[in-house]
C-alpha cells in the first residue's frame, strides 16, 4: 500500500477472532514442541551446480533501457520447476534481439551468473495493449516468440535480459521453484504485489489511463510485461528482493524458491520446510496463501516477514487464456465486488475491513499503520537472542524505518506472548506513532519474525540504506536464518512478552 494512512475499522475487527486458525495463540509452552530428532534431514545447501558454460559474476544490469516499447516481454508462467519449458512473448521495434538468462545470487562481483544465451531472434512489433471491460484489465494479445528449456538450471530467481539490436534492453523475471522444500528456508517472491502496482498499458490496481482513481483496474493480468519505468520489466524484484537473495545465498543455508502464486496454488508447498520468508513488499494475499502459511506455522514451520505492509490486500485468482491463476482480482471494496453476493468471504476489500474482518496481525504479530514514513530503528530489547551483544537499548540505527511500517496494536487480535525488538518513534502524515519489529512463538514450536519496516532488506546492503548499520542488520538476519534452519525456532527461543515494559496497551 503506497497511498494514505489506514482507517483501521477496529471495532469491526473483533468480530473476526474466530474466523482464522491461529487467532487463539496464547503461549509457547503448551503442548509438545517438535524435537530436532523428529525433523527431516537438511538438504544440500546452495550454491547448486550451474549448467556447463555458465559464467558466474557476469554483468547483468541494464545500461540502455531505450524508449518505451522498444523491447519488452513476459513469460507464460510466473514460475516453473527446473527442466520445465517456459514460453516468452517479446515485442520490439528492432529487427533482431537476443535473450540472456541470469541466475541471481551469490556470484561475486556482480551478483549474477549467466546460464544461457539465445541465438539472435527475429524481432517484430506485436499488437497494442487491450483494455478489457468492465474491470479495465490490460492484456498483451501477443504470439509466443520462443521457448526456453530450463533443463540443468538450478532453482532460484532468474532475470531474462532482452537485448535488441537497436540498443534497447529490458528484463523478464522468472522463478525456478524448488520441487521439494523439505528442510529448506523457502524464499517467496511477491509477484502478486509486483503485478498490483504494474502500470503497463496505463492501468494498475491503483492507476488508470484516464488519470481517475475510480477508473483503475479491478483485475490485473500476468499476460503482459512489467512496466519499463521504475521496474525495468522486473517487477519489484530489484527494489525489494534482490539484496536479500544475494545475502541469503552467501549464508550457505538450504534455500528453496517459490512465488506467492505457488503458495496460493499448492497447499503442500511448505510441507517439511523449516521456514517461509517473504520479502520487502508482500501486500497482496489470497485466502489460500494465508491458509497455507497459517497451517505451516501451526505445524512448526517458522515464518519471517521482512517488510512493512504484508497481508493487507485480499485478492483472488482467475484463469487467463494462457493458464491458471494468471488474473489477480482486487476491487478494494466489498460492496463493489460481485463476489460479495455470491461468495462473501472471497470478496476483496482489505483483509482487515468489515463485514468479515480478518486482520493481518493474527499472523504477523504487528499491524500495518501508515506511509510515507522515515525514521531511525530504535532498539527496545537488547537482551533478545537476536540482538544480544550487538546493540544496546535505545541505540538508533539511522534511517531504517520506512517507507511503510507496522506496530503492535492491541485493539486488534495479537498473538501473545510477543516480544518487541525495535520500538521506533515515527511521525507519519503529521501523526506521532511507533514502528515495531516483533518476535512471537506458538505451541507448535514455530517462531514468527516481522521486521515492521520495508527498509529491512535495503538495510542489509551498505550501499542501499544499511550504511554503518548493515553489519548489525546482517548479523541479526543471519542469526534468524540459522535458527530457522535448525528447526522450530520458537521452541528454542520462546518469546518473552515485553509489551507492558514498553507501555504498549
From TrEMBL:
Keywords: Signal. InterPro entries: DMFA2_C (IPR046540). Residues 335-358 are annotated as: Disordered. The keyword RNA-binding does not apply. Residues 1-26 form the signal peptide. The keyword Signal applies. Residues 98-464 form the N,N-dimethylformamidase beta subunit-like C-terminal domain. Pfam families: DMFA2_C (PF20254). Coiled coil: none annotated. Residues 335-344 have a biased composition (Basic and acidic residues). It comes from the Bacteria. This is N,N-dimethylformamidase beta subunit-like C-terminal domain-containing protein. It comes from Pseudonocardia halophobica.
Amino acid at each position: 500500500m503506497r497511498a494514505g494512512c489506514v482507517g483501521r475499522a477496529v471495532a469491526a475487527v473483533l468480530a473476526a477472532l474466530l474466523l482464522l486458525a491461529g487467532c487463539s495463540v496464547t503461549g509457547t509452552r503448551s503442548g509438545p514442541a517438535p524435537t530436532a530428532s523428529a525433523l527431516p534431514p537438511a538438504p544440500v545447501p546452495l550454491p547448486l551446480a550451474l549448467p556447463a558454460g555458465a559464467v558466474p559474476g557476469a554483468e547483468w544490469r541494464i545500461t540502455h533501457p531505450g524508449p518505451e516499447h522498444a523491447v519488452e516481454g513476459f513469460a507464460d508462467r510466473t514460475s516453473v520447476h527446473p527442466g520445465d519449458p517456459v514460453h516468452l512473448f517479446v515485442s520490439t521495434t528492432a529487427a533482431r534481439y537476443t535473450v540472456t538468462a541470469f541466475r541471481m545470487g551469490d556470484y561475486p562481483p556482480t551478483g549474477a551468473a549467466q546460464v544461457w544465451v539465445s541465438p539472435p531472434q527475429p524481432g517484430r512489433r506485436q499488437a497494442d495493449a487491450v483494455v478489457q471491460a468492465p474491470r479495465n484489465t490490460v492484456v498483451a494479445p501477443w504470439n509466443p516468440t520462443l521457448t526456453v528449456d530450463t533443463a540443468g538450471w538450478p532453482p532460484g530467481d532468474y532475470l531474462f535480459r532482452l537485448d535488441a539490436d537497436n540498443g534497447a534492453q529490458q528484463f523478464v523475471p522468472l522463478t525456478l521453484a524448488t520441487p521439494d522444500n523439505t528442510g529448506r528456508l523457502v524464499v517467496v517472491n511477491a509477484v502478486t504485489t509486483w503485478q498490483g502496482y504494474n502500470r503497463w498499458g496505463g492501468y494498475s490496481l491503483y492507476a488508470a489511463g484516464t488519470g481517475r482513481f475510480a477508473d483503475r483496474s479491478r483485475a490485473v493480468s500476468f499476460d503482459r510485461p512489467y512496466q519499463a519505468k521504475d521496474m525495468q520489466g522486473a517487477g519489484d524484484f530489484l527494489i525489494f528482493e534482490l539484496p536479500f537473495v544475494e545475502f541469503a545465498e552467501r549464508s550457505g543455508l538450504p534455500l528453496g524458491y517459490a512465488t506467492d502464486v505457488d503458495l496460493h496454488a499448492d497447499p503442500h508447498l511448505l510441507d517439511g520446510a523449516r521456514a517461509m520468508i517473504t520479502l520487502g513488499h508482500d501486500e497482496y494475499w489470497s485466502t489460500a496463501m494465508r491458509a497455507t502459511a497459517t497451517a505451516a506455522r501451526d505445524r512448526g514451520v517458522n515464518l519471517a516477514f521482512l517488510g512493512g505492509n504484508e497481508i493487507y490486500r485480499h485478492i483472488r485468482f482467475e484463469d487467463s487464456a494462457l493458464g491458471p491463476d494468471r488474473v489477480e482480482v482486487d476491487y478494494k471494496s466489498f460492496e463493489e465486488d460481485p463476489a460479495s453476493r455470491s461468495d462473501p468471504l472471497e470478496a476483496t476489500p482489505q483483509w482487515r475491513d468489515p463485514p468479515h474482518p480478518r486482520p493481518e496481525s493474527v499472523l504477523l504479530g504487528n499491524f500495518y499503520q501508515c506511509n510515507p514514513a522515515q525514521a531511525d530503528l530504535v532498539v527496545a530489547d537488547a537482551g533478545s537472542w537476536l540482538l544480544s551483544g550487538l546493540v544496546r537499548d535505545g541505540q538508533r540505527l539511522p534511517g531504517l524505518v520506512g517507507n511503510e511500517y507496522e506496530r503492535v496494536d492491541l485493539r486488534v487480535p495479537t498473538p501473545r506472548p510477543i516480544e518487541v525488538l525495535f520500538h521506533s518513534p515515527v511521525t507519519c502524515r503529521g501523526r506521532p506513532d511507533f514502528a515495531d519489529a516483533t518476535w512471537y512463538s506458538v505451541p507448535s514450536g514455530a517462531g514468527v519474525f516481522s521486521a515492521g519496516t520495508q527498509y529491512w532488506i535495503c538495510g542489509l546492503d551498505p550501499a542501499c540504506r544499511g550504511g554503518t548499520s548493515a553489519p548489525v542488520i546482517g548479523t541479526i538476519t543471519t542469526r534468524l536464518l540459522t535458527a530457522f534452519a535448525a528447526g522450530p525456532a520458537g521452541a528454542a527461543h520462546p518469546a518473552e512478552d515485553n509489551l507492558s515494559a514498553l507501555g504498549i496497551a
